Amino acid sequence: MSESIKRVVLAYSGGLDTSVILKWLQTRYGCEVVTFTADLGQGEELEPARAKAELMGIKPEHIFIDDLREEFVRDFVFPMMRANARYEGDYLLGTSIARPLISKRLVEIAKQTGADAVAHGATGKGNDQVRFELSCYALNPDIKVIAPWREWDLTSRTALIDFAEKHQIPVPKDKRGESPFSTDANLLHTSSEGKVLEDPWEETPDYVYSRTVNPEDAPDAPEYVTIDFERGDGVALNGQAMSPATLLAALNDLGRKHGIGRLDLVENRFVGMKSRGMYETPGGEIYARAHRGIESITLDRGAAHLKDELMPKYAELIYNGFWFAPEREMLQAAIDHSQEKVSGTVRLKLYKGSVAVVGRKSPHSLYSERHVTFEDDAGAYDQKDAAGFIKLNALRLKLLAKRDR
Amino acid sequence: MSESIKRVVLAYSGGLDTSVILKWLQTRYGCEVVTFTADLGQGEELEPARAKAELMGIKPEHIFIDDLREEFVRDFVFPMMRANARYEGDYLLGTSIARPLISKRLVEIAKQTGADAVAHGATGKGNDQVRFELSCYALNPDIKVIAPWREWDLTSRTALIDFAEKHQIPVPKDKRGESPFSTDANLLHTSSEGKVLEDPWEETPDYVYSRTVNPEDAPDAPEYVTIDFERGDGVALNGQAMSPATLLAALNDLGRKHGIGRLDLVENRFVGMKSRGMYETPGGEIYARAHRGIESITLDRGAAHLKDELMPKYAELIYNGFWFAPEREMLQAAIDHSQEKVSGTVRLKLYKGSVAVVGRKSPHSLYSERHVTFEDDAGAYDQKDAAGFIKLNALRLKLLAKRDR
Amino acid sequence: MSESIKRVVLAYSGGLDTSVILKWLQTRYGCEVVTFTADLGQGEELEPARAKAELMGIKPEHIFIDDLREEFVRDFVFPMMRANARYEGDYLLGTSIARPLISKRLVEIAKQTGADAVAHGATGKGNDQVRFELSCYALNPDIKVIAPWREWDLTSRTALIDFAEKHQIPVPKDKRGESPFSTDANLLHTSSEGKVLEDPWEETPDYVYSRTVNPEDAPDAPEYVTIDFERGDGVALNGQAMSPATLLAALNDLGRKHGIGRLDLVENRFVGMKSRGMYETPGGEIYARAHRGIESITLDRGAAHLKDELMPKYAELIYNGFWFAPEREMLQAAIDHSQEKVSGTVRLKLYKGSVAVVGRKSPHSLYSERHVTFEDDAGAYDQKDAAGFIKLNALRLKLLAKRDR
Amino acid sequence: MSESIKRVVLAYSGGLDTSVILKWLQTRYGCEVVTFTADLGQGEELEPARAKAELMGIKPEHIFIDDLREEFVRDFVFPMMRANARYEGDYLLGTSIARPLISKRLVEIAKQTGADAVAHGATGKGNDQVRFELSCYALNPDIKVIAPWREWDLTSRTALIDFAEKHQIPVPKDKRGESPFSTDANLLHTSSEGKVLEDPWEETPDYVYSRTVNPEDAPDAPEYVTIDFERGDGVALNGQAMSPATLLAALNDLGRKHGIGRLDLVENRFVGMKSRGMYETPGGEIYARAHRGIESITLDRGAAHLKDELMPKYAELIYNGFWFAPEREMLQAAIDHSQEKVSGTVRLKLYKGSVAVVGRKSPHSLYSERHVTFEDDAGAYDQKDAAGFIKLNALRLKLLAKRDR
C-alpha cells in the first residue's frame, strides 16, 4: 500500500496498540488521522481516548466517540439471535457480529470527514481483518483500508514498545512484559486467545475469565427468571420492559452471577488455521436459549427445521465477515419472515453455570394439549389416520425392499 | 386390518399394556403369538417377562429374550453420535435410535419362526408407530404390522384394566389409578411424556426424573474425566479400554451422579403435533460433547462444516423413522468417511448438571500452535497473504457496491 | 367421511368425470352443490360448463366461472420462476403450481356461499389430492374436503359410465371406449399420464403431444426473440410490454411453433410411487431459460449459489403441495429479496426444440469487462492478489496433508 | 517467490506460451526444468512437444508425455457425472475436472525426479491457477508452485513475443497478431473465453465452435442411441461394451454430428468476477442426460432428492478447485453409495442440438406399473391410505391456520 493517503479514519481504542498505530499512520503516510472510538458495551471509560488522541495532535472535530450499544444489540445481535446462530455448534459470534457495525461507522465517518481511507488494528492472522475489510469494501468500494499489522515491521513486542517510547506514547506498566492475551469485549461477550490458551490440552485457568464467576463460586440456590419476546426479539425481563441493550446488560449481570456462558473452543478460522479461544457470553447464552424456547411453541415444524438447516451457513457467513453480503441478507429475510408470531414468555432456571428452559407460554402457541394428550382427545385426532400416513411413507421403502431382496 | 394372521411376533415388555396386547392378539386374531423382549439397557429384570408369557400360553420356543446392549450402542448409538445428531437443536434421539434395532429383531424372529406379522405397543399419536413400521417394511416389505392401539376399542384406562381383569392378567396396584407417564428407557436415555408435563409452562417436577440426581444435590466438587476416541468412536474412559455398551453405562453412572443430561423440550412430532417431553441422557450428553471436542482438533474445517450442514436432515431422518432409508445411509457414508482420523483424548469437567470440554489432544491433531501463535511463527504464515485473500473475497462485494450506490 | 354435509363447492370442469362427481355428491350427501370452473388458460370453452351445471340443477348464483389467468401467472407462476424451480432437475411444476390457486378460490367461494365443504376430482394415487387438500386445510382448517375417487365404488370405467347413463349425464362418444390419458392443462403446461406412457421404455407417441409441433416439423430457420425483465419478472416480448398472462401466452405460441418444452420424465410422487409423465411447457421453458440468463449478469455469486442450493427444497415443497406452508413462504422471502436488480434484456434463439440464451444485457449488470479482460485492465485487478488468496485457501489442505502423509 | 528452486516440473503443452514459460523458468530461476505433457484427449499431436522440449535443452529422461485419457474419464469425469454435477445450473465442469489430474501427475513426477517445484501456465485472473495450486498443495504440502503469469513482466502480447524471439522460440504466424481466444480442450469439452466473447450481449460467432456442427447443419433426421450403465457408470453404446474413454469419445462423435452440447454462459469465477464462456461438451451432454435417465427409474426418491440438494455444493467444490478436499470426498462417498443399483439402459434421441431421454429400462427398476396404473391395480395400493396421509401432513398447517385466523 504505497499509495498516498490524505486522511484516514482509525478504529481507536485509546490503548497502547492503536496509539502506536495512530502515530505510525501519521509517520508512515504523513496523513491526517481521524479517530473513532465506539462504545459497544465493552465496559471501559472512553473519554481517556479523547485526551490521548488530542495529545497526539488529532483535531477535536476529528475525534469521534459514539455510544453504539442500542444499535449494536437491536440491529446486529438480535437479528443474529433470531437465527439461533452458533458457529461450529457453540460459538455465539460475539466478536464477529460487532465488526460490521464498527466498519459501518468507519465508512460513515470517512464520508463525513472526507477521508479516503480507514484503518484497523487487527492482525494478519485472524478473522477480524477479513470482517473489517469485507464490510468496508461492501459499503464503499472505493475506500482504502490500511492494516498496519500486515504492513509494518513492528513484528515483536519489543519493537512495538520501542516505537512507542521513541514517540512519547505512554506504555502502561503491565504492557511492558510479555504480550498479553488477545482479548475482545463488547456487550455480548468477552473473548481471549493466545498465551497459555495456545495449548488446547491445558484447561483455561480461572484468571482468564473476567465476565463470569466460576460456577463453583456461584450461588447455591437456583434463580428463576422470565424473558418476554415480541416478534422474535426480547422485550422484557421478569415482566419489566427493557430496550435491547438494557435487556442484554441485565442478562449479563444474571449470567455473571451464576457463572453462565463460559466456552472453551477450538475453532476453524476463515484464514485456514485452527485457533483455541475462550469466550464468555453470559447474557447471550441465556438469551439464545430463551429464544429457542419461545420458538419451540410458536414456530411450525416446517419453519423450525428450515431454520435449523440454514443456520450453519448463516453463522459461517457472519463468522467469515459477510454480514453485508446478499446471501446473508437473503437468509435474514427468510428468518425474519418466520418471526412474526414468535411472541410470549419463557421461564428459565439459572444455576451454577447452566441455564435451562423450564416453561414457555404464548398467545400464539401452536402446542395443542387437546391433540397431544394421552387422555381422551374428544376427536381432535383420529388415530386411524396414522395407518395411511405410515403406509404411504413406507411405500417407497417397500418397493426398494422388494427390488433388493 | 381384517386379514387373517397366522403367527405374530410381539415386542413384549412383560408390563400391563403389552400383556393386554398379547391377550388381545390371541383373542382378536386367533393367532399364535411369539414374544420378543429386548434388553437395551433399560434397567429392568427381563426374566419375569418369560414367566408371564408362559402363563399366557406362549410356547417356550416362542419366547425370545435378547441382550442387545452391545449391538445397540455399537451399531446404532455410536454411528449416530459420529454425526453429532441432535433433533431440533437438543434432543439426542434416545428413543428414536432404539426403534430400528427392535424392528430388525422383530423381522428376524418373524422369519425364524415363520410368522407373517409383527405387533408393537405404540399409540396412534406418536412417532414410535412410524419408526417401528417404516423399519419393518423396509426390512421385509411383505410383513404385516399390527398396531393394536390404532385398532382396538380399549380407548380408556378403565377399559384396558377391565379387559386385563376379565382375562386374568395381573394388574399392579400402581397401575390402577390414573394413567402413568408414558416413559421409554434404554442404555442411552429415559423419556417421559404426559400428565403434568402436558402443560409446557409448568416446570417438570423433580419426581419425574429417575436417571439423574437433581443438579442441586450433585457433588459440590467438579470431577474430571477423559474419554479416548478411535476413528470417531469412544474406546476408553479415564484410560481404561471399554466396549461400547460398557463405556456408555459408565458414563451414565457419572452423568447420574453429577445431574447431567436433563432436557425439557417442546418438540415437533412427525405426525404433525407438538409434544412436550422430558429426557435424561446422562452418559449420552457427556459422550456427545466429548465427540465434538475430539472433532474440533482432528476434523478439517471443510469436513466439519459439511457435517454441521447435513446434521439437521440426518437427525430428522432418524427422528421420523427413516433409519433404513437410502438417504440416511448416504449421509452415514459421508459422515463415516470423515471419521478416519477422529482419534485422541478429550478431557471433561462434570459439575452440577453441566459438562464442559476443557482439553483435547490427538496424534492426528490439525491444530498448529506454530501457525496460530501471536508470537514469532518462524515464517509458518505470511501475513501479507491475507491482503490478497481479502481482496479477492471482497471483489464481488465491491462490484455489487459500485453497481448499487 | 360419513358426516353430514350441507353445501359443497366442487371444482368443476364440465367434463364427464366431474359431472358424475356432481351428481354423486347430490346423491350420496343429499347436499347442495356449488360449482367452480376456473379459466387458467387451459384453452377450453367454459360457458358449456354453466349450461351443464344448470341442467343438473345448480342454482345460477351457485355457478362460478372465473378467469384466473392473470392471477395465476402473476402470483403463482412468476414467483416460482424467480426461484428457477424444477422438480427432479427438469419438471417445471405446471400442474403443481395451479392447485394452490384453485384451492384458494374453492375456499373463498365456500366462505361466500356458506358452504361447509369442498370437493375435487383427483384420484387417490396422485399428487393432486394432496395439493388440493393441504392448500384448503391451510386456508381454512375447518373446511371439509370430499375426494370422491377415494370414497365411491365407481372403480372401473364401465361403472362410471353406467352411473352417468343412469343419471342422464351425457357421455361423449370418445369417452365410451377405454379410459383416456389422464391430462391436465393450463397456461403454463399440458401433462399426460397413463396408458401407453405406463411403460417407461416406450417412446411417447407423437399423438400424445398437443401443445407443440414435433421439432422435426418446426421451421428450418431459427427465430430470435428478446424478453425484458424487471425485478425478476418478465415484462416485455421483443420490446413490447405485456401483462404476465399475455407474455406467457405469447411465449406459448413461440414455443409451440418451434417444438420447445417437451419433456418425458419418470418422477417420484409424494405418495411414494414413481410415475411416467409427458409434459409440454412451451412458453415456460423459454421463460425459465431467459430468467436464468438475466440472473447470470445481475445476481452476485453469493445470491446465485444460495438460490441454487435452496431450489431443490423449494421445488419439492411446491410439488408436494406445501405452497401455503411457512417454509415455502420463508424461501420465497429469501428468493424475492434477491430479485431487486434482476432487470434487463435476454436474447434467445429458438430452433427445432431447443432454446438457447445468446445474449444478455442490463443496466444493473455485474459483469465487468474491465476486470475479466485478457487485455490490459488498467489496474482493475492485481494478479498478485491471487497468490495470497490461494495460499490461505490452501492452508487447511496443507495442514491436512502434513498430518496424513 | 524469490526463493531458490532446484528443479521444476512444468505442465507443458508445447505451444508458444508454455515454451516461453519454460525458457523464463530456466532464465529466471536458473533451474532445471522437467516437462510434463498430458494427453487428456485434447486432440493434438503430443510428440512435437518432445522435440521442442529437447530443443530447449530438456534432458530426455525429464520429458514426460502421458496418455491419461482412461484415468481421466474413469476416475474424474465418471465420478463427477454420478453426482449429476453442473455448475450454476449448466456448466459440465470440463476444465475444472481436468486440473486435479494434471496436478496429481505434476506432483508425482516431481517426486520421481526429485523436483522441489511445479509450474503452470494459468493466469492470475482465472480459476485454473486456484485449481492447480490447491490440488498440488493438498497432495504435497511442501511443494513450491510457480505461476509465471503472476510473477513476470510479460504483461502484453508484444512483450511475450519479443521474449520468444529473443530466445529463439519459434512463433507460429497465427500467434503474431492479436491474442487468440483463451481455449482449453480435453476429452470432455472445449472452452473458449475472451475477445468477441467479452461482450455478453453479442452472440457467440459460429467460428468459435470447433467440436460440434451448427445445429442448423446437423442431419435432418434424428438418431436414436442407447447407453448401458452399470453401478452408475456408462459401459456400452448401442449394446457394444466400451471402456470409459472409448465411450466418451464415441459420444463426442455423435454429439459433434448432431450439434449437441453447445453452451454460452456468464459464470461466476472463484476469484470474484463474472466471465463469459463458450463451452462445447458434445458427449458429456449426452452422457449427463442419460445418467439422470437411468437414475430416474433406479434411485429411490430419498436418495434422488438428497443428491439434488447436495449437487450445487459438490459442483462448486470442483469448480473452485477443491477436488482433493475432505468435504468433496465425503460428498463423493454419499453419492457413490447411491449408485449400487444404477444399472440399466437408456434410449436417447439426438436431433439438431438437442438430446432427449425417450426410454429407460433396468433389472433394478423401482418403477411399478402395477402401483401407478389408472386401471385396476389388484390391490397393490389402497387409495384410502391417502386420506390419513394427507390428514397428518395437514395437521401442522391446520394448527397454524387456527392460530393465525
UniProtKB/TrEMBL annotation, chains A, B, C, D:
Q: Which reaction does it catalyse?
A: L-citrulline + L-aspartate + ATP = 2-(N(omega)-L-arginino)succinate + AMP + diphosphate + H(+)
| Record: residues binding L-aspartate | 123, 127-128
Q: Please, which domain of life does this record's source organism belong to?
A: Bacteria
Where is this gene product found? Cytoplasm
Pathway assignment reads: Amino-acid biosynthesis; L-arginine biosynthesis; L-arginine from L-ornithine and carbamoyl phosphate: step 2/3
Q: Which NCBIfam families match?
A: argG, PRK00509.1
Positions with a binding annotation for ATP: 11-19, 38, 121
InterPro entries with a match to the protein in the record: Arginosuc_syn_C (IPR048268), Arginosuc_syn_N (IPR048267), Arginosuc_synth (IPR001518), Arginosuc_synth_CS (IPR018223), Arginosuc_synth_type_1_subfam (IPR023434), AS_cat/multimer_dom_body (IPR024074), Rossmann-like_a/b/a_fold (IPR014729)
Q: PROSITE patterns, per this entry?
A: ARGININOSUCCIN_SYN_1, ARGININOSUCCIN_SYN_2
Q: Which major enzyme category is it?
A: ligase
The Swiss-Prot or TrEMBL record annotates one GO molecular function as:
argininosuccinate synthase activity
Amino acids binding L-citrulline:
91, 96, 127, 131, 182, 191, 267, 279
Q: Which residues form the Arginosuccinate synthase-like N-terminal domain?
A: 7-170
Does Amino-acid biosynthesis appear among the keywords?
A: yes
GO cellular component annotations of the record:
cytoplasm
Question: Where is the Arginosuccinate synthase C-terminal domain positioned along the sequence?
Answer: 181-399
Subunit structure comment from the entry: Homotetramer.
Record's protein name: Argininosuccinate synthase
Keyword terms, alphabetized? Amino-acid biosynthesis, Arginine biosynthesis, ATP-binding, Cytoplasm, Ligase, Nucleotide-binding
Tell me one GO biological process term. argininosuccinate metabolic process
Q: What is the predominant subcellular site recorded for this chain?
A: cytoplasm
User: To which protein family does this belong?
Assistant: Belongs to the argininosuccinate synthase family. Type 1 subfamily.
* Record EC number: 6.3.4.5
